[in-house]
Amino acid sequence: MKSENKQVVTAILVDDEAPMRDHLRLRLTQVWPELQIICEAANGIVAIEQAEQLRPDIVFLDIRMPGKNGIEAAGQLAQISQLVFVTAYNEYAIEAFERGALDYLLKPVEPERLQQTCARLKQRIEEKRQVASAHALPSVPSASIAAKAPTTGDVEQLLRQLMQQQAQSREYLRWIQASVGNALRMISTKEILFFKSDEKYTLVQTEQAEFLIRKSLKELEDELDPNEFWRIHRSTLVRASAISEITRDFRGRQLLALKGHPHKLEVSRNHTHLFQQM
To answer: Which H or E run contains 190?
Structure first.
């Protein structure tokens, strides 16, 4: 619950990548040491549950996450907290946010940009508290509070605009480069069955062979067409058209069979929504 002390400001961090949350927490400690980070979440479902319980002043929200992504979660979160979107999308796409009462940070978060965001947040939160306090008096109209916060519709409209602009302005990754001995192999994404993270490397699996590359799964997910490659586990991206069958094992876990490959891939609980009819 929020403290009655007006000087206390609380926040939660929402990102499916723990290193990203750690990085943002460090940056916030540097530019706003008084901010109390009271919770972290790896997807929108948990973020909404925690926000409803803890009522934070601010939610720092990633956009692309499993379970419930930032777009799906933002409408509900905006009714509780100030939203700051933390995203890898480019400056052109993010112009959609600048027209609303929202803010954004580009990954990796830079201290100077975060300083600006924190200054805006402090001002907004103080204004909101002053208006809320004044609203307790009968002479203050209720409309004055509504003007300070974005509505659910505002949030959803701005997010949709961002995603549409991003889709129109970007070229998705079509080739993967992998070192094989002293040679460089070019692998078409159409050949790839799945990507699987393996500590420092990512395994690239085709029907004929497997390769190791140094690009992280998060980087690949940001660069690949989301309609072509789906994240089914924190460590796995699969080409949707390579899926031949979905089954369940004796423990109820969803397993994907792939065309031209004997290996089956497990679908984590956070990603079972991709196959809701199972």
So the answer is: none
Asked if 124 and 132 touch (Cβ cutoff 8 Å), the reply is no
Nearest to 125 by CA among 38, 54, 58: 58
> Which residue is associated with the tokens 């949709």?
160
Residue found by looking up tokens 């994404």 in the block: 189
Compute the distance between CA of residue 176 and CA of residue 98 in angstroms, rounded to an integer. Answer: 35
Strand partners, 196: 203, 236
C-alpha to C-alpha distance for 114 and 107, rounded to whole angstroms: 11
Task: Supply 72's token pair.
Answer: 């799906």
Q: What are the extents of the domains in the chain?
A: 10-169, 175-275
Return the structure tokens found at 84.
């700051």
Domain 10-169 has CATH 3.40.190.10: no
What is the token pair recorded at 82?
A: 């100030």
Structure tokens at 56: 């934070």
pTM, full prediction: 0.55
The single-letter DSSP state of residue 250 is: T
Q: Which amino acid makes up residue 256?
A: L
pLDDT digits (tens, 9 = 90+) for 130-182: 877 776 655 444 333 333 445 555 656 666 666 665 555 556 888 898 888 88
- In whole angstroms, what is the distance from residue 278 CA to residue 274 CA? 9
Mind listing the pLDDT tens digit for each residue in 213-254? Answer: 988 898 898 889 888 999 999 999 999 999 999 998 888 889
CATH number for region 175-275: 2.40.50.1020
**Cβ neighbours of residue 112 closer than 8 Å, sequence gap 6 or more:** none
- What is the per-residue DSSP string for 212-272? EESS-HHHHHHHS-TTTEEEEETTEEEEGGGEEEEEE-TT--EEEEETTEEEEEEEPGGGG
* Positive/negative CA dihedral, 199, 202, 205, 211: negative
